[in-house]
């Protein structure tokens, strides 16, 4: 009988590709979501903010992939709006997994739990952690949730692996545009000034992220490790240049100029959806 994997947040961008990758390899997949998920029959209603439903979600599962996490389009009014759900939700999933005796939990963390808040640029590795006191709300949430997961794993004996992706891009499986894809969407639709801000990212294809999750599940030696999954650094203008070369011949007009940082900061005062991006300004 095929092994069963629970994927939390099954309606999400990364989760959709993780589910497709697992099913292509013969795994049975159960998802958690607040609504039906297209192409997935086994869906359990479970909310990261409530205990209800998690015991049923993990029942009979060999593995858990905890992909769900809050990722806002706008800066929250309070950091706790992100941090507490991320930490508490992660611990709910891990407790349920421990109680059910699952063989391994793969946690979707982020490079934001590795490189945020540092005053000096340097090559960061899986041994590094973000400095929460100098990080954005999102980076704080990912860092504190992952730290809480490792603390729980040490205390409970849960077999845990963390995947820390960079800026996740790639084909959408649903019409919903997640936050990580907003940069590309705004460049293609010119929902930005006729220029690109000097923001740095480490992009990664969502399909590679899905493969990394599957390998983290299958590889015995992965237990107890974190894995950064990211490509080479790119400035926003470099991303714009790639898009312009591909799509401008099709009628798009991707802005390829450079937007002054001072102007971006002014814009962020009036457009809260820009505020989370300020953490990436000037980062190499």
Tags for this model:
284 residues; alpha/beta; Rossmann fold; two-stranded parallel ribbon; 8 helices; globular
CATH class of the domain at 4-168 and 204-231: Alpha Beta
Major beta sheet, strand line-up: 3-2-1-4-5-6-11
Percent of residues in beta strands? 15-25%
Oligomer: single chain
Determine the N-to-C terminus distance: 48 Å
Mean pLDDT: 88
Per CATH, the superfamily of the domain at 4-168 and 204-231 is: NAD(P)-binding Rossmann-like Domain
Helix content: 25-40%
Count of helical stretches: 8
Radius of gyration: 19 Å
Unreliable stretches: none
Strand pairing plus helix content: what structural class? alpha/beta
Beta strand count: 13
Largest sheet entry: 7 strands, parallel
CATH topology of the domain at 4-168 and 204-231: Rossmann fold
The CATH architecture of the domain at 4-168 and 204-231 is 3-Layer(aba) Sandwich
SSE pattern, N- to C-terminal? EHEEHEHEHEEHEEEHEEHEH
Summarize the structure in words:
This protein is an alpha/beta fold and 284 residues long. It has a domain at 4-168 and 204-231: NAD(P)-binding Rossmann-like Domain (Rossmann fold), CATH 3.40.50.720. Helix content is 36%, strand content 15%. It has helices spanning 13-24, 54-58, 80-100, 137-156, 182-189, 206-218, 236-247, 261-270; strands at residues 4-7, 28-32, 43-44, 63-66, 104-108, 160-165, 167-169, 196-197, 200-201, 203-205, 226-229, 234-235, 258-259. Helix 1 crosses helix 6, helix 3 runs parallel beside helix 4 and helix 5 (182-189) crosses helix 7. The termini are far apart.
């Amino acid at each position: 009988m095929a092994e069963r994997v629970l994927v939390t947040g099954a309606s999400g961008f990364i989760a959709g590709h993780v589910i497709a990758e697992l099913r292509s390899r013969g795994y049975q997949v159960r998802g958690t979501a607040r609504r039906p998920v297209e192409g997935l029959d086994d869906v359990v209603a479970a909310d990261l903010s409530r205990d209800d439903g998690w015991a049923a979600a993990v029942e009979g599962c060999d593995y858990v992939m905890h992909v769900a996490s809050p990722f806002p389009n706008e800066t929250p009014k309070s950091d706790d709006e992100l941090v507490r759900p991320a930490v508490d939700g992660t611990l709910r999933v891990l407790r349920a997994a421990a109680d059910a005796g699952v063989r391994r939990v793969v946690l979707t963390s982020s490079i934001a739990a590795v490189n945020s808040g540092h005053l000096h640029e340097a090559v960061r590795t899986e041994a590094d952690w973000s400095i929460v006191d100098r990080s954005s709300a999102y980076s704080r949430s990912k860092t504190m949730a992952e730290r809480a997961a490792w603390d729980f794993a040490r205390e409970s004996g849960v077999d845990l692996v963390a995947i820390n992706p960079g800026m996740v891009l790639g084909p959408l499986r649903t019409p919903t545009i997640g936050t990580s894809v907003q940069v590309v969407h705004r460049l293609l639709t010119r929902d930005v000034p006729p220029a690109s801000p000097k923001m740095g990212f480490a992009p990664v294809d969502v399909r590679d992220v899905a493969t990394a999750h599957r390998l983290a599940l299958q590889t015995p030696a992965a237990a107890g490790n974190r894995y950064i999954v990211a490509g080479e650094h790119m400035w926003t203008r470099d991303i714009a240049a790639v898009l312009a070369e591909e799509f401008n011949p099709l009628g798009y007009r991707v802005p390829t100029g450079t937007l002054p940082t001072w102007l971006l900061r002014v814009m962020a005062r009036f457009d809260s959806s820009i505020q989370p991006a300020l953490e990436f300004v000037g980062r190499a």
